[in-house]
Structure formats: structure tokens, C-alpha cells
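Section 5: illustrative case.
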């Protein structure tokens, strides 16, 4: 991802200095005109804007341990590394204590799509610091600034990833069910896509119910869905397909039915997802 980010800036003829733990990985970027910093301090000395994209926050910490005291002073750090809201808050506090501004970022596309029209990147942190570098960041994709708290970009990021991975899990289970009778996944996929597209259209209405905590009693209610999910579990086992991807989803609906939400819409299940009742 770091290579794709650097490439996007090079394509716009910006001056780019790159550093990576394994220096040989910078070769393709150097060939395209990037300056190569042998030590991270050199990279910091080259610009007031520092973008970081590494595996996780522990890797970011490892890199910051290499920085000589005082070299972060006055910089703007944009950390595009995937992590948790709490990690972002702690990182922001540490970076701010070094005299630098901190923006947390969440890239919502694969490296191939960086800089493409439908690419978007989440950002959070001090708004004036973000606005000062926004035009540069726009080169990577549409910036979605979600608020002053640095924890917000990773919060949105993990929320979006939850929705995506939940969908992937469902799709993989669907494909396994089809394969259990030698039906090619490709045969069922157009129907799966059609169903999911129709369901996605319901999200804004369900989100409104979640936010207002007013849960309607539609014909497609939690009791019906818990029964359908039970059939998915039973049918999967009959077909020799593991039920452990779908079982927790059934558990949630079942719990809803047990807790008086049988006649309500799925929005009524969100409070059950909190570990402590007060947070719901
Ligand atoms: N790839 C995607 O589709 C995608 C999409 C959105 C967001 N992201 C996020 O972007 C970030 C980077 O992902 P990626 O796909 O580029 O991962 P990657 O190909 O595995 O690259 C990881 C990078 O982290 C560096 N790194 C790991 N541990 C380190 C350490 N202890 N100290 C210094 N550097 C260290 C690696 O350095 P070496 O080269 O020396 O190993 C490498 O440059 C992740 O947070 C990921 O979640 C990725």
C-alpha cells in the first residue's frame, strides 16, 4: 500500500521521499523519481508531511523508536495504518507530545485503486491540520473527514470492514452450500447479488430505526428470520457444511426473540450487541 501511495504522488510530479524497513522494496519508486531516505530521520527532514502505511500500530511504534528526538517537531503525521480507535487515540497523544499534528487515516480501497475516481480514504484528527494537507491527500482518493477525535477514522474503518467481512462470510457460506450439491458458485452468484442489492437498499431505513431506537413491527420480523436462520443451520449440517459462520447470527436473532423483540425489525437487535447494558 505504501508503494501505491508514493506512486500516486509521483504521478502528480510531487517530490516524494520514501523509507521502508526493507530498503530494497523502495527500488521501483526510486526508479520513478522518488528520493530514498536511508534513515527515517532523513525522510522526516525532507517534508513537513509524513505519511505512514505499515502493517499495524506496533510497526508504527517500531519506526517511531528509530526517530531521533526533536525530528517530529512541527510535522504533520498522517497514519494510514489500519488499527483500533484506542490505538489511534494513544498514537495521537504520543505524536502531539513530540510537537507534531496527528491525522489518522483509513484507506478503503486496495492498492490498485489508489488515486482512481472511486477511491476514498477516511481521516480524523484536528480539522485545521487536516485542511492544511487535504489537497495533497485528495490525490489518493476522495477524503472523507469524519471528525476531530483521531479515533473516529478507525471507528468508521472497522465499522465498514465489519459490514464487508460479514457479507464475504455470508457469500462464502452460500458458495459452500451450492458446492455441496455440485452447483457452481457462478450459477448462484447473480441471484445472491440481486438479493444483496435489494437488501442494501433497506439500510438507510434500518439505520434510522437504530438511531431513533424506534423499532417497527414489519411482516419480515425477527421471529421469522430466526426460524429461517435455523433452517440455514440445519440445512447446512445436512449438506455437510460447517455452521459456525452463521450460528452466531442465528444466536443474535434467537436472543432477540427471547428478549421480546420477536415481532420487531432487525434494528431492535443492535442493543443486544453491546457487552454492557449501559452502552446500548
Ligand atoms: N492491501 C490492501 O488491500 C489494504 C487496503 C486498505 C488498507 N490497508 C492497510 O494498509 C496497511 C499496509 O498494508 P499492506 O497491504 O501494504 O501490507 P504489507 O504489504 O504486508 O506491507 C506491510 C508493511 O509494513 C512494514 N512493517 C511491518 N512490520 C514492521 C515493523 N515492525 N517495522 C517497520 N516496518 C514494518 C513492512 O516492511 P517490510 O517491507 O520491511 O516487511 C511493509 O512495508 C495495513 O494497515 C493494511 O490494513 C491495506
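Designed sequence:
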Amino acid at each position: 500500500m505504501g508503494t501505491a501511495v508514493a506512486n500516486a504522488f509521483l504521478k502528480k510530479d510531487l517530490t516524494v521521499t520514501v523509507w521502508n524497513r526493507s530498503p530494497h522494496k523502495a527500488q521501483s519508486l526510486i526508479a520513478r523519481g522518488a528520493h530514498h531516505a536511508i534513515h527515517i530521520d532523513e525522510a522526516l527532514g525532507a517534508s513537513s508531511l509524513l505519511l505512514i502505511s505499515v502493517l499495524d500500530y506496533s510497526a508504527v511504534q517500531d519506526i517511531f523508536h528509530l526517530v531521533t528526538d526533536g525530528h517530529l517537531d512541527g510535522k504533520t503525521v498522517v497514519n494510514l495504518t489500519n488499527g483500533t480507535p484506542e490505538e489511534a487515540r494513544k498514537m495521537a497523544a504520543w505524536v502531539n507530545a513530540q510537537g507534531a499534528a496527528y491525522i489518522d487515516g483509513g484507506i478503503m480501497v486496495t492498492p490498485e485503486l489508489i488515486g482512481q475516481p472511486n477511491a476514498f480514504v477516511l481521516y480524523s484528527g484536528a480539522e485545521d491540520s487536516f485542511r492544511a494537507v487535504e489537497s495533497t491527500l485528495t490525490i489518493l482518493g476522495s477524503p472523507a473527514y469524519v471528525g476531530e477525535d483521531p479515533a473516529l477514522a478507525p471507528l468508521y474503518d472497522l465499522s465498514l470492514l465489519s459490514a464487508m467481512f460479514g457479507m464475504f462470510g455470508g457469500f462464502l457460506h452460500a458458495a459452500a452450500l451450492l458446492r455441496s450439491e455440485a452447483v457452481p458458485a457462478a450459477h448462484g452468484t447473480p441471484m445472491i447479488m440481486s438479493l444483496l442489492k435489494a437488501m442494501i437498499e433497506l439500510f438507510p431505513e434500518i439505520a434510522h430505526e437504530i438511531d431513533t431506537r424506534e423499532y417497527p413491527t414489519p411482516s419480515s420480523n425477527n421471529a421469522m428470520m430466526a426460524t429461517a436462520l435455523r433452517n440455514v443451520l440445519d440445512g447446512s449440517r445436512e449438506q455437510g457444511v460447517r455452521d459456525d459462520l452463521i450460528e452466531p447470527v442465528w444466536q443474535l436473532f434467537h436472543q432477540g426473540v427471547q428478549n421480546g423483540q420477536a415481532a420487531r425489525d432487525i434494528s431492535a437487535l443492535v442493543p443486544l450487541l453491546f457487552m454492557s447494558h449501559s452502552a446500548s
